[in-house]
Every structure is written in C-alpha cells, then in structure tokens.
Please model this.
Amino acid sequence: MKKVGVFVCHCGTNIAQTVNCEQLAEAAKTLPGVAYSTEYKYMCSDPGQTMIKKAIEEHNLDRVVVAACSPRMHEATFRKCVNGAGLNPYLLEIANIREQCSWVHSDKTKATAKAEDLIRMAVAKALKNEKLTPSVIPIHKRALVIGGGIAGIQAALDIADTGYQVDLVEREPSIGGKMAQIDKTFPTMDCSACILTPKMVDAAQHPNITIIAYSEVEKVEGYVGNFDVTIRRKATCVDPVKCTGCGLCSQKCPSKTDSEFECNMSQRPAIYSPFPQAIPNKPVIDQEACRYFKTGKCKICQKICASDAVNFEDQDELVTIRYGAIVVATGYSLYDYNQYGEYGYGQYPDVISGLDFERLVNASGPTMGKIKRPSDGQEPKTVVFIKCVGSRDANRGHDYCSRACCMYTAKHATMVRDKIKDSQAVVFYMDIRTPGKNYEEFYLRAVEEYGVTYVRGRVSRIYMESGNLIVQGEDTILGTQILVVADMVVLATAMEAQPDAAEFARKIGITFDQNNFFNEAHPKLRPVETFSAGIYLAGACQGPKDIPDSVAQAGAAAAKVVALLSKDEMATEPIVAEVNTNHCSGCGFCVPVCPYKAISLKTLTERVHGSVAWGPAGKEITRQVAEVNKGLCQGCGACTVNCRSGALDLLGFTNEQILAEVDSL
Amino acid sequence: MRYAYYPGCSLNSSGLEYNMSAQAIAPLLGIDLFELPEWNCCGASSAHLQDHTLALALPARNLAIGEDLGLSLAIPCAACLSRCKATEHAVRSSEETHTLIESLIDRPYTAAYPVKSLLEVFIESSMDLLQDKITKPLTGLKAAAYYGCLQARPTDYMDMDDPEYPQTIDIIIEAVGAEPVDWAHKTECCGNGHPTAYPKIGSRLVNRILKQAEISGAECIVCACPMCFFNLDMRQKALGQKRGRPFNLPVYYYTQLMGIAMGLPPQKLGIDKHSVNALDLLSQKRYIPTAGSAAEGGPA
Amino acid sequence: MTMDNGQWTMDNEMQRQQGTSVRLDSVGKDWDPKILVFACQYCTYAGADLAGLSRLQYPTTTRVIRVPCSGRTNPQFVIRAFQKGFDGVLVAGCHPGDCHFSTGNYFTRRRYLLMTRLMEFVGMDPRRFRVCWISGSEGPKFQQVVTELTDAIRPLGPNHKLRDTELSSLVGGIGR
Model:
C-alpha cells in the first residue's frame, strides 16, 4: 500500500491569503492513498524541510506531494529534501498553488476549491510515480567560443588558461570586434587598441587556443558534453601557412571598396586585413570586390606574392568538430539611424553615428585622428550629440536603454572640447544614466571641467539652412524651443541584436527575447547560462553591455564551461523515453520524430513463450524493436505520441501518470 | 467614383477658393462629390478642448450619415479630416466607445467606410485621368509642398505616406508639371489659431515656414488645409513689412494648380481671391493669359 | 445563443451543432466551465507562472497539467479529458520555432489540426478545444487566452456529448 504525505505551504501570506490552507490539509487527508497531511508557514525553510523529513520517517511515507509555489521554483529543493530522508527524488510531486492559484485568483472559496483539485491531481500522479535514476554521459573536453570580440576573446583566454582546448570562431577576417574600432574607453580614457591588442596577441599565441577566423558556425548537433559543430571556413584565397603577412598584395591591389572597419569613411583593397593589428594578420580576398573574380582578369596579388600564397581556386570548407561546451559571444549591431525621418533619413553627410565618430577621432582612422566633418573635411566647431536614437523610443526603435550611450557620449563630447579649439559640444539627453564605478564622476568631469553643454530634451528635427545643420529641439528644463546651428551631429544609436541573431539562435538551439537578444536561463540567478545545457552567453549578444560588463560576463561564462569540462562525465535527467519491447512492433515511426536522433531500431532475438499464432512455443524468432539512447534523449516525449502500439513511454510523465491526473478530477 | 463631401465651416468662407477649385476639377477627374445632407460642424479646435466624447460624437454623426448612404467621406479640410479619423479610430479600437457614440448620435455607425482626405482620393483614383487632361503643364514652377501638422499626425491613424517627409502633395506638384522643392518645414506647425490669439507666437511660426520656403528657392507654396492657407496667405504681407522686404510667395491649394494645368480659368478656381497676388506668378510663367485680361473677378 | 432571465437558452441550430440537448436548468449564468490545460514546461507553464508573478487575475476554470513539451500531449489525453467531463481543453506550447526540443510544437500543430477536424466529425463543438502558443514571457497572453476560452465555452454549456458517466477508474492507461 502506497503512502502519500501532503504538505501544504502558506508561503507567508502569499498563498494563505486567498487559499484556506488548513482546509486544504484537512481535505487532503480524505484523498485515496494519503496517509498524512499537514500545513506550515514556509515549507521551503529549514524547519519546513525538517518537518517533511520527519514525517517521512515517522509515517513511513513513500510518496510526497508539496503544495506550494511553482515546481520551476522549488522542485529541486524539495527533491533534495526527500532524498535526504531516503526517498528517491522522483517520488515527489509539486502542486502549484501559488503562481497558478493564489496569485491569480481573489475569490477565496473558488481558489481553495481549485487548490484542492491541484492537490488531488498531484496525489494521483504521485501514486503512479516510480523511482528514477540518472544515467551518465561523457564530456568531451574541448570548448567552442563563437564570436571574437572582447567577450569572446576573454572567454577563450579564461578557458584556455585552465588547460582546456578552445576554438575561437570569428566571421570577420580578424578577431577584435567592435572594441577594435573604438578609440578610447570610458571612464579611464585608455586607448582601446592599447588594452585590446595585447589580449588579441595573447589569444593568438596561447597554446590552447585555435583561432578560426573568416568562418561561421553552420550547424550544431548533439547535446551537452557532445556537441558536433559544423563550421564553414570561408574561402580566403590566401594560404595562411605560406603567407608571411607582408602586406604587399594589399598595397598593389587595384580594386577598392568601402572599408567596413572605417565605417565606410575610407576605402580598402579587395585583398585586405581589416586593420593593421589584425589577428590573424593574413589577408583575405573579398570576392565581391575583387577585379579578378568580377572580370576574370587581374591576378596582380598572385603575381607579386613572393611566397606564392594566393590561390584563386580556394573553396569554402566545412569541418565538423566535437565540443563539450559552447560560449556564444556574437555581439551586437547598431541601429540604422537612416530610419529617423526627422534627422534627415541619413541624407545629411554630417549627421553621423557614435561609431563613425570613434573612427574620426582615432589616430589610425580615415582622418588620422583629426576631427573633420565628412561633407567638406572642415573641422567642426559646434558639435551636437543626440542620445537615445533608437533606444527608449518605442515608435521608432526599441523600448530598452542601450546602457553604454550616456557614457560614450560624455566621452565624445569631452574629446571634442579637448581636441578642437574654441569648440562647443551640446548634448541633448532624456536622462543621464551612469550606473558604474567612476561613471558619474566621468560625466561630471565632462560638464564641469570640459564645459560640455547638456540640454534635457529631445531633438525634433535636423534640417539644412545655408549649408549649416540646424538642430531644432526642446529644452524641457527651461520649457522652451531651442535651435542650435551645428557643424556636425553625432547620434548615439541604439545597440541592437545582430541582424541574423534569430536565425543563429535557431541554428544552435537557444532562445531569444522580443528584441532578438539571446535569453539567459534566469535573469538574476543564471545570467550566463542558456536554456540549452552546455551553451553559455557572454557579452552584448545577451543584451546591451559596455566593455567592463562584457568582460565580466565572459569570465563568468568561462567559469561555467570549465566547471563542466572538469568532469569526465555528467549525470543526465532520468526523464527519458523508454521502450517496452514486448509491445514494440518495430514499425520505426518513432525514429524520424526524434529531434536528437536518440531512437534507433535494433534486432531482438527471443524465444516464443507458449503457443501463439506466429509459431509454436520455444521457436526462436528475430524481430526489430526501437531502442532509446538515454544520453541523447532529452525527454520531450514526441515519440510517445507517435507510437502506434503504445510501447514508448516517457519516464516521469508516463501515459499512466498523466491520465491519473486527468482522471482524478 | 462617388464620395460624400461637406464643406464644413471654412470652405464656404475663408476657404472658399478650396471649395471652388475642388468642385471645379472633381467632375473632370471622375470624382462625384455628393454633398452630405444635414451635415454638421466637426467640432475642430474647440470641441476636443471641452469634452472628449463630444469631439468624437460630432464627426461621428457626419460619418454615420455617409455610412447610411453607403459612401466614404472625401474630406477637403485637414482639421475635419483629423477629427473624423480620430473618431473612426476610437470607434474601431474600443467596443465601449463604439456603443457610447452610437447612443449619443442615435444612429448606427460601424466605421465600415474608411474616411479619406480629398487629397488621398485624387491620388488614389485620378492620377491617370489627370495626365490625359493636362493642357497647360506648369513647367518651370518651383513649388514648396506644405502639409502642416494635422494631415500627418498622430501617426497611428492618419495614414500619411510618411509622417516626417510626406510626399502626397509633391506627387501632385510633379504630376501637373511643376517642380517640388526639397525643404525641411513640410510638416511644421503654422500656428492654427495662435496668430490671432497670441500674435507674437503665431507670427513667429508662420515666419519660420515662409523663410524656409524662400530659402529653398520655391516660388510658391502649395497646401491642402484652409487654416494653413489662411495663415500663410493672409499674414504674409504683414510679416514681409515687418522685416522690410516682402516674401512674395503666393499660396495655392493643390486643387487650384490641378485646375490651371487642366486649362480652367483662374477665376473659376478662386485664384483671384488670394491676399497675396496669385495671378501674376501664373501669368508671368504664361500658364494663364497676362494679368490685364484677368480683371473680371475682384479681390475677396 | 441568448440570455433570458439569467438563463442561457439555445436556439435550435446551436443545439443541432452541439448534437445534444442541454439541461438548461443546470446551467445558470454562474456556471463555470472546467478547462484542462496541457502546458509545456518551458514556455506556457512558465508563462502561467509569470501571470502569477505579475498577479494577473483570471477565472478559476483551469487545471494545468505540466508536460515536458506540447508534443508530449497525446490526442488521446484530450479525448479522455472530454470523457471525464471537462468542458474545454487547451493545449499550449512554445511559439513555432522556439520549441526547447526544436521540433515538438510542429508535431503538436499538425496533430491538432486533425484533432479539430475529428471533433467536428464526432459533433463536438470545436470551440471547446484550442491549441495556442504562449511563451515564457507572455504572462498577459496566458491570462487572455484563459479568459477568452472561458468566455467562449460558457455559452456552449456543459460538455454532455463526450462525457462518459460510466467511465470508471477501472479503465486502464492507454497503451498498457
């Protein structure tokens, strides 16, 4: 005779105020199979858990139902608790009477009646629960980091330093990401390249890191500990072994195109490295820009290459590598301000983005670090900065705050005042957000020491008048309209998810939010994990972030990876599909529905017991039956529905268990 | 194509030219403007300051009459259009408001026939016909299309092609052979009633628009709203005197330019009634006979 | 369907559609339908929890069964729920493309298109059955769907068509 114990939690007043807990505990006593029931103020607390353990011992309970908050909250807690009392953790059931009852209803009678039903369902299921034991899967000790920006580089270095092999995949010809384009970093005004490039070199020289540049992840199969990742190495047309990186080919290349690295403000050759400190420092041929690929004539680079490294026959190559863990650090892109009609739809050359400005002030940028406006190369005297372009603007862009813009705008304004004599820097803002160490001080320095003018209000329009940009806005503190005659306008455009973020997430099997940023498993407590075990997040692909936060998150993701790789094998959820070979007809319908390729058919040889239609007793027969690989099975249960003969069932959510819940009402 | 049409408060008074020109060109362009029986004031500029429900109910009555006739309304005035669209939107988006409005106007109104601006109606259904009817293309005329505030905003229900840089009037300017100028103040506010109540603020707003139109190289302004027309045309002389140099920017309704291009006499389109002489520019450009022969109609 | 003196009455067509005669006397306006929800634990169950966290109020008509994936919900569970007297069934999972198990909800979608046809075929009002996608961040949508479904079923009255008063707990689990 199974003996179920029911434990009703008040959750302070969270449950008790709309559900009569005493009545519930009393009613539970009358349910079939229930041997004991009680209620307590906080079941999850130490005394609460002790109470459960004691009751299990005193009343010989072999099934436990806790009526409390969502199982997503404390199922693990109570499983551990019953396990402490010697029960198999899977003999526990949770009745969710908080999130799905007390918090969503106000009529106490109806809510209590519903809670009673929820307990009845949980008891009915618990009676059918069986002991489950986890199985183990091996962990392949190699990590993949996708994205070679500062987050990816940091994660790769941190993992590699603990002794594990890391592959760093980057789709551009060089690692470095957005940080490589930035001139100086707030709040210290370090030169970005000075702190980034040593890290890039470290990554390149690290014995445990392999940089796979100009490559993209094509496909991810498998599961935690055993991901099979197919990587497309794009044709570079330059043999990396032969190439010495001398750069002669780039100098002589006759085909020019806009340089992405310089925000299209200058030109680069078709055979190129994005920037002088690029890593790997081997050029690639941009086939869309290359004269040879377009016309079939040229090959100048091949002719002048002393080491014969140029190979026009190079093809994309697919390689499949097994990894134990993956860090996604694919970064962000910037909001396209050409959508803003009131700022001229991108028609005014002197209205630029913050990243454009970074290149304009950078000593190796298109203007050699002299701030010159794009239209006529003149030094701008009055520069207007507009914040929240595409951020905090539901009509045009995104609801969210991009977090870094207040700081980098203060930095830009400081630089204008610093570098241009008699200049004026005017910043239009909605709020100043400086939540970081030394951030507020940095902003105050911009105002107090550098005399940057901050105007609280939005800009309603930018238009041209006699060759000048007129910035028309509102000063909400003075309550008046103001016009600023500007030589250049810098827009702090929103950080947004990469344009292919959603497609990428589907490819590797993680989820994304309404803004296409990747979802962390828990916004507070699991900020670097994803819902897919073994895949972690670092940097701005998870949400807008500045450099310090990206680096911190990268370190955290690396720690998670190392914790995983340090084990030789790991226990898996025992909630997996199971085949009853007696019932299996070997039809194979279950094989194609499994997304994890966990089901295969095997041949079974057995003797017939008793005389049946297909042969006399004792006759040996062979037949096909399904077999589930418990390491691969993730427990979705899709196969069970497809099974004609009802031979497949999902442990923990068996047909019997679910129907017991249905039937209990 | 038949549309319900009503002149409202201004098209028989200060906006007479709009009414004259619209009525003159519509039949030529296959548009039958049927005057809405028993139409009432839409309540623009005053009702919504007093009572939100009243401001919805007033235009709803007109819309309901149109719906009863099975007709969409083609609305010439931007203020009427704004109120009608607001009502349509409110009725469509809330069942509660819908019931309330129907009970107030004592008629069924389901917003089944979409409200359109007269401008939209011409753009949608008359552009091909217009090309066939043009006898005097206005070649060489540089015109600044001015939309004002009401036709483009609020963006969620006014359905203007682009609220920040609208093109509808520009398309008509091009269609009649003239050249639309690119300028920044297409949707800037003209001040509505403010030039009368608060002359200082109001004239600054009007001044800004005129100045920008002048800078853009436009020879005239083309609009689609009687209030804008009134402000830009009637106040222009005083503003010119104030700065010591006249603006000399005639203001036309788009319907007037369409009429001229189709060879209609300017008097029939009310062009002789403007405050800023609007005939001279047209005769200088030889779109109409020279000024001497155009003395039949006196100024308004 | 009209409401008359606080009682729901049905026109003939609706009765024919229902394929049953409803005992009108038992269906006062205070009658609450009973709805069984099969919620996938990654999206909809989390969405329902979020509705709770946000204190969004909805009718007490639902009982949720947590399943690992909407694709685990065997159509036979749905039929059983109707046999056991539930007045409506909701199967809810992640949005297409967002399935934690990659493809589970695509199977759900295909299976339940057929399920709806089957319901029409056997004469059950298909409005009693719904499949929808509610993500873990859509607490308000969970509230909305439950409220809408309750309002949609209320005028249909109790499910008598498939309710099997004889069905006892002796009937074993399917496939056993």
Remarks:
- Chain C has a mean pLDDT of 79.
